[in-house]
């Protein structure tokens, strides 16, 4: 027996877009977030009980969909997006191009945007879906590579969740769903953390999932010059007060993002993102110790880009061995 999937079911219960027993209504509503498609019942048995929960992001969106009864879904070519589908319950037969996959909680699927798709979701099937915008994915990859793509990105449509790489992707997906449910990411006030989260996921996904661009991401990064490292740290220090991404830091240094990460690990013993957070925490501590400062802890933290107070307090305690309000009591 397979273990229970770690995503809480039904996920994104506070982000309901659709709850209907009408097939035509379900097709029309789901089409608005995905694309026009054919939706038919496979048999008269089973209760049709459609639900669609949705949390929009920057490059991709999180979704939960079920139909209750067995259905056939035929969107043809998705065209404008890729779709990672992870079954939470039940099974589905997915055809993307020339590949047909029997999908369950051990085998997720990846739908390529430029391949014809037809799906049979069996009765009781429920899936968590990550919709990735095609244009923004291509822009992301081109920025990482430093040159234009010569052909569409094509992924192996099978994601084996029993292998280490697939299990890690599922773990990251679960974390994003939990974060969305808690309002930490995929919300109106989470722009910086949202972009960083999505970029980190895409980096990991592109390195681990077989595709026609994976070899670029597996290549060893070039050596970084001391002047490039200085440019990176100078850019971070000059922009601690505003939302920045690691892609911006890499561009300022004139190096590839993966090279940036390797360089920080070698030279600073941490990732570039960790270094950015560490420097922000130092500035926050400096202000908290200032007796003339009349701003609240939350206000000071927010000014330095730390908008989630629970995570900020935990990071601050890990860095300095005390919580922010303990520091305030020591004001000079």
Helix/strand layout:
Blueprint lengths: L15 E5 L2 H11 L4 E4 L8 E7 L3 E7 L4 E7 L3 E9 L2 E5 L2 E5 L3 E5 L4 E6 L4 E8 H12 L12 E3 L3 H19 L8 H18 L5 H5 L7 H13 L7 H8 L3 H12 L3 H17 L8 H7 L5 H12 L3 H5 L4
Residue fraction in strands: 15-25%
Decide which structural class fits the backbone: alpha+beta
How is the biggest beta sheet arranged? 7 strands, antiparallel
Question: What spatial order of strands do you see in the largest sheet?
Answer: 1-3-4-11-6-9-12
* Overall body shape: globular
CATH fold description of the largest domain: Jelly Rolls
What's the CATH architecture of the largest domain? Answer: Sandwich
Feature tags:
globular, Jelly Rolls, 12 helices, 332 residues, alpha+beta, disordered N terminus, 12 strands, 7-stranded antiparallel beta sheet
